[in-house]
Amino acid sequence: MINPKTIIELDYQFDNDQIDELKKFLDKYYNIYNHEIKIYKVEDYVKQSLFAQSVFDEIQKELERESN
């Protein structure tokens, strides 16, 4: 997901069953479908998230502009 609209940070690690339950809850109460949800473990986020990479790229570009 390259352009997320909402990011939720939790100090809690979901297991696979809890992830499935959360996705069902979001679908049932908010009509947010499975393909619109990405849940990452914190240690995998930077490697797996396209959004994290785009944030890093923007920061790097800004630092380059400031140094010129």
Account of the protein in words:
There is one protein chain. The chain is mostly helical. Helices cover 59% and strands 0% of the residues. It has three helices and no strands. The radius of gyration is 15 Å and the shape is elongated. 0% of the residues are buried. The model has no long low-confidence stretch (mean pLDDT 88).
- As a percent range, the share of helical residues equals 55-70%
Radius of gyration: 15 Å
Number of E-state strands: 0
For the residues shown, what is the average pLDDT?
A: 88
User: What portion of the residues fall into strands of 2 or more residues?
Assistant: under 5%
- Low-pLDDT residue intervals, each spanning 5 or more residues: none
Give the helix tally.
3
Basic shape: elongated
For the sheet with most strands, the description reads: none
Sketch the topology as an H/E string, one letter per element: HHH
- Determine the structural class based on helices, strands and strand pairing: mainly alpha
End-to-end gap: 32 Å
Summarize the structure.
The chain has helices at residues 16-30, 42-48, 50-67. The protein has 68 residues and is mostly helical.
